[in-house]
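Hi Y.,

Following your request, here is the sequence exactly as I used it, all 316 residues.
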Amino acid sequence: METAEGKAGVARPASRLSGHSLSWAALLLLVVVWGSTFAGIRMGVETISPAWLVTGRLLSGTFFLGVWILGSRMLRPIERPADEQGVSLKAIAWFGLIGIGATAIPFILYAHAAESVGSAVMAICNGGTPFATVLMAHFFTTDRLSARRLAGVMMGFLGLVVLVLPEFREGAGASLIGILLAIFGAWLYAVGNVATRLAPRVEPVLSSFIIVGMGGVLALLYALAMEPFPVAASVQSITAMIVLGLLPTAFAMFVYVWLIRRAGPVFVSFTTYMSPLWATGLGVIFLGEQLEWSMIGALALILAGVAVANRKSRVA
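Below is the corresponding structure, written out as tokens. Let me know if you'd prefer a different format.
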């Protein structure tokens, strides 16, 4: 008995370490994918209006997730973990609301905010997502608000401010309505983070399919009502739209759902701070943009904030 317990005691820390490392790897993967989205959006909106780009992105993402589900069912039988449920009406309602209220609507809000708000101001507004997530998670989940976690969130937000401060003048003339749209979108993202944690535990790829699919339906209805169909879209814009559907939508949504169930909404919300940092780094490396001291300071603040907010307390 003592030997078995001793072996179990030795094995558990290694398992926790590997599991924690896997969560960090998934977070960084989301940062890379979402941080690279901006280039695809810029190419897409050259000949496709924002509403139709959002629609095409969500519908193509739904298609890819559907192919993933069918392919996985053909290759292997369904082996549902003990903590997962089947797709019920309750699950469809949960994930449908997340797809509409916390995916499609924020996408549309940010598309309209971009018409009168600079990218730096939008990044600041979007930086409210982790703060809103921390507050909501405290009241609705087991992720309790602590001084250490709040300090980490504020450090990350300060890093984001330092990162975009050199470009902030571009958004000096931003309209109040545009800013409010961006802030509201950030809070809806936070609602989605917490709701995904509270939703029934359905297989992540199925959850993602419902979220993206329901969001795509709403976006399609909105685009049909508000904007003409883009009949003169270029091959480059269409390609960008499809890639956006495959990677930042279908694949990233799967990782997002899986990671929130594993590590919690607060941990995942820090992609809001890290994705702009990654996008800035890509500009420096591949586009010849100048490396500024503000970027280095932002990197230090954001990484320190993430580490402080998510540091595990030692258990004696």
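Residues 2-35 form the longest helix (34 residues).

Thanks again,
Q.
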